Amino acid sequence: MKVSDILRVKGSTLYTVTGDEPLARAIDTMAEKDIGSLVVMDHGELAGMLTFREVILCIVKHGGVVGNTTVRTAMDDHPLTCTPETELDEVRRMMLERHARYMPVMSQRMLMGVISFYDVAKAVVDSQNFENKMLKAYIRDWPEHMTPPEAA
Question: What pLDDT is attached to residue 144?
């Protein structure tokens, strides 16, 4: 399974901000849309990611106050990325190694979407459930005149 399979199911809604935007406005957007990340764009290119992790770290660093802080101050300016062709096993490994919960999906320099660790986990579980159903159907339809391999 590839990242493109997740994007096809997930849809194409993307929420972005600029680095110069006030962090308070970005936090309001995240709360209003019930999302855990915003892609930071600069002149049409990926500049970073703002997730609730960066928001919390920034708030703690500034004594519990957001103040006039900009998104650029808080964002991760070197986010982990993948392509639509990246295999899900590779994405899981990358996300686990870096403790990344969100990953922008890039094709060349174009942002195609963002996948979350939840999206990856759901895709794996859905795939396993489908495989289990197919195996159970296969076992149930085993011809009666043949002995299943495990009974031989």
Answer: 64
Q: Which ranges of 63-116 would DSSP assign to H, the alpha helix?
A: 71-74, 88-98
* Dist. CA 80–CA 104, nearest whole Å: 7
Contact between 50 and 17 under an 8 Å Cβ cutoff? The reply is: yes
Give the C-alpha distances (Å, rounded to integers) separating 77 from 5, 48, 85, 119.
Answer: 27, 4, 23, 23
- Output 81 or 133, whichever has higher pLDDT: 81
Residue ranges of the domains in the chain?
Answer: 3-143
Mean pLDDT of 82-92: 95
Residue 71, CB-side half-sphere exposure with 13 Å CA sphere: 26
The predicted model scores a pTM of: 0.79
Label residue 131 exposed, middle or buried (CB < 10 Å: 0-12, 13-18, 19+).
exposed
**16-18 and 37-42: which strand pairing?**
parallel
- How many CB atoms neighbour CB 47 within 10 A? 18
- Give, in words, the CATH class of 3-143: alpha beta
C-alpha span between 110 and 16 (Å, rounded) = 13
The amino acid at residue 87 is E
